[in-house]
């Protein structure tokens, strides 16, 4: 499937001749592609982007001859690395069965003290698959068995240790409404067993967090000791706006419940899945609520998916809702993320919005737009070189750079993909 390649050094690289998709400018406004463009990667950052002649002239003026590696990618397309904003790569390992599934800790409904980072295995083949599909960042989330699932973690998709790959685990908390939590607990004869019970669990947890915060403030004012509760600390961070609330919900009524709960407690809501979001797109737009849509390439495997349609992103775009697309890996393989956008374009989504939904828009949702999602100078040098139009079904990622290091390459003639081995040669002495 993949051959191992040595880990290359980070060096100044100039990619020239491609159709360059910067996606957005420094203010977040979408911009047009640059034909015969060039991008400079230097010290793990984007250093320059623009027309080929302009960039090469600047490079020549800045550096001594031969210092930069010039790579001719004429005829290709170049984009920022894609951002999978809702997935389980590393916590639900592909092909490993129960031994590799650490997605849900479903013993009790409130998992607010859990952290996805503690369950991530960087050796999961899903990370190599991500690179194959041009995905360089993934927001990895606990599953949807619990009404409150735990804290998420954004990681680069190449590396050997999760902490080294980590961008931040101070972005959001996963929560679930609808069929999944009521089924997981109801089938065990435990609460919650219906939608009212799921909402109650969330409401009671936030009420307890408010009381905890007030008691902690009183103790601090009086100089008294106070026992820390890890779960309540996380929920207080949500209440104070330091973490977003990633709400799994498919049906329109569950989306409405998510909004109702967010209004009650004042936290920032991001709808995850939003399968029936097209029914209430005007409501979502009016409330300014972001939606992570998908996965789109699935069967209607349960009742709350019966209205799943590839047209949902186009409806949200028309209504003015900011959205992202997701594979929900491993529900749909993470390397198919670009294809979710391609298929949505066939149903009316604009190509510009399709690419934005995989890059700058999810980055903005989680406050990461200064690092990922565009080719703005200063952002992380996460870049994908595509064989053609990124949204064309026959295009593929030929080269993938993470933090300026080329970690994936595809040799079309040999039909082989090589991934830099982050562990490198590892001598082991066996007695």
From TrEMBL:
Annotated GO MF terms: hydrolase activity, acting on carbon-nitrogen (but not peptide) bonds
CDD domains noted in UniProt: Met_dep_hydrolase_C
Gene3D superfamilies: Metal-dependent hydrolases, Urease, subunit C, domain 1
Keyword terms of this UniProt record: Hydrolase
Domain of life: Bacteria
Region (Disordered): 87-111
Domain Amidohydrolase-related: 79-404
Protein name from the UniProt record: Amidohydrolase family protein
């Amino acid at each position: 499937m993949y051959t191992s390649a040595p880990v290359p050094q980070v060096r100044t690289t100039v990619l020239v001749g491609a159709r360059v998709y910067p996606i957005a400018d420094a203010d977040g406004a979408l911009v047009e592609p640059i034909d015969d463009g060039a991008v400079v990667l230097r010290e793990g950052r984007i250093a320059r982007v623009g027309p080929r002649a302009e960039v090469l002239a600047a490079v020549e003026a800045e550096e001594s001859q031969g210092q930069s590696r010039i790579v001719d990618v004429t005829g290709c397309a170049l984009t920022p690395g894609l951002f999978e904003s809702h997935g389980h790569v590393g916590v639900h390992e592909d092909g490993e069965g129960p031994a590799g599934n650490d997605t849900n800790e479903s013993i009790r409904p409130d998992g607010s003290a859990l952290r996805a980072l503690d369950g991530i295995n960087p050796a999961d083949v899903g990370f190599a698959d991500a690179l194959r599909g041009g995905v360089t960042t993934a927001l990895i989330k606990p599953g949807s068995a619990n009404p409150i699932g735990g804290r998420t973690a954004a990681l680069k998709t190449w590396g050997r240790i999760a902490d080294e790959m980590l961008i931040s685990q101070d972005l959001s908390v996963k929560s679930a409404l609808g069929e999944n939590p009521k089924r997981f607990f109801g089938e065990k004869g435990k609460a919650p067993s219906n939608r009212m019970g799921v909402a109650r669990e969330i409401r009671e947890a936030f009420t307890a967090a408010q009381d905890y915060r007030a008691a902690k403030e009183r103790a601090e004012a009086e100089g008294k000791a106070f026992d820390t509760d890890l779960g309540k600390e996380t929920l207080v961070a949500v209440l104070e706006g330091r973490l977003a609330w990633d709400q799994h919900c498919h049906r329109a009524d569950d989306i409405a419940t998510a909004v109702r709960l967010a209004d009650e407690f004042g936290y920032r809501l991001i709808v995850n899945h939003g399968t029936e979001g097209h029914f209430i797109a005007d409501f979502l737009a009016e409330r300014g609520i972001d939606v992570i849509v998908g996965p789109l390439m699935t069967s209607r495997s349960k009742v709350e998916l019966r209205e799943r349609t590839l047209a949902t992103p186009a409806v949200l775009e028309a209504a003015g809702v900011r959205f992202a697309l997701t594979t929900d890996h491993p529900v749909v393989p993470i390397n198919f993320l670009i294809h979710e956008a391609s298929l949505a374009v066939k149903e009316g989504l604009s190509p510009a919005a399709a690419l934005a939904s995989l890059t700058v828009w999810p980055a903005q949702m989680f406050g990461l737009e200064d690092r990922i999602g565009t080719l703005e100078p200063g952002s992380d040098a996460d870049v994908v070189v595509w064989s053609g139009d990124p949204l064309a079904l026959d295009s593929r990622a030929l080269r993938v750079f993470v933090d300026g290091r080329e970690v994936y390459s595809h040799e079309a003639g040999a039909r082989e993909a090589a991934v830099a081995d982050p562990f490198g040669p590892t001598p082991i002495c066996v007695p």
